[in-house]
Design a protein that fits this description.
single chain; 267 residues; alpha+beta; Fructose-1,6-Bisphosphatase, Chain A, domain 1; D-Maltodextrin-Binding Protein, domain 2; seven-stranded mixed sheet; 9 helices; 35% helix; globular
Length: 267
């Protein structure tokens, strides 16, 4: 019951305060919360609503992106509390501000530092994704099973969200990308990129910044669909460990070969 209710909360909140502002933001509705980081009135209102409703389902701390931007110490709850809700009320805010539909609303339940349930709602598409540790991944109630990439790297399609790459790593990735069929700059939203890998629309995605609300939902979704989400040292993604670099791929062989060919890292 709780599992289905979270999906409803995300969709209902999006309909109430996010979708009415899409391509209709007023003057003053958008501010810069940090250099290059936008936040809108929709982000903030949605997080307050989602947090209150999630606490009504399970009264544990809520770690939301916008609350952490005000009080960074709140993120410590992911490591110290037995259970927390993670909330990204509007993933892809830059796209939302620009009138692009690649944005999502996301949440995850974390127990003992590991995501055990996850939800992603894409308002423009009207598509919902969910995953439960050991219970599978789902798109609109249908089971997602990611097929292996197959066919070899020269036929694989991927994305590199390179905004936070340093110049040296950017040069390495630019050169390595030549060995694949296609490597794009991605959508600019984790809540779009992870479902693309889970659903077989692309074979891999490289992220560099790894904030927990961005990656806990999608990492669980991909893993439960049969894919891989791991740090560059091979450790499976856990939201309590905030280090740079996260590679998501269709399967173990794809992950290893992308790591070697795209990043120049020894097997």
């Amino acid at each position: 019951m709780v599992f289905e209710k979270v999906a409803e909360i995300l969709a209902e909140t999006a309909a109430e305060v996010i979708e009415p502002r899409f391509r209709a933001l007023a003057a003053g509705d958008v501010v810069e919360k940090a250099p290059g980081e936008l936040v809108t009135v929709a982000d903030r209102e949605a997080e307050l609503i989602i947090a209150e409703r999630l606490r009504g389902l399970l009264p544990v701390p809520v770690v939301g992106e916008e609350a952490v931007s005000v009080d960074p110490s709140l993120v410590e709850a992911v490591r110290t509390e037995p259970a927390v809700w993670l909330v990204d009320p509007l993933d892809g805010t830059g796209n939302f501000v620009a009138g692009k539909g690649d944005y999502a609303v996301m949440a995850a339940l974390v127990r003992d530092g590991e995501a055990v349930a996850a939800w992603i709602w894409q308002p423009v598409c009207g598509v919902g994704y969910a995953a439960e540790k050991g219970g599978g991944a789902w798109r609109d109630g249908e089971r997602l099973r990611r097929a292996p990439a197959g066919d070899g790297p020269e036929r694989w399609r991927g994305a590199v969200l390179g905004r936070f790459l340093g110049p040296e790593m950017r040069a390495v990735v630019t050169e390595g990308a030549r060995g694949f069929a296609s490597v794009t700059g991605g959508s600019g939203a984790a809540g779009v990129e992870y479902p693309r890998v889970a659903a077989g629309e692309q074979d891999f995605t490289l992220f560099w910044r790894t904030l927990p609300w961005d990656h806990a939902p999608g990492s669980l979704l991909v893993r439960e669909a049969g894919g891989v989400s791991a740090r560059l040292d091979g450790d499976p993604y856990r939201p309590g460990r905030n280090v740079e670099g996260l590679l998501v791929a269709a399967d173990e062989d794809c992950w290893r070969q992308v790591r070697e060919r795209l990043l120049g890292m020894a097997p």
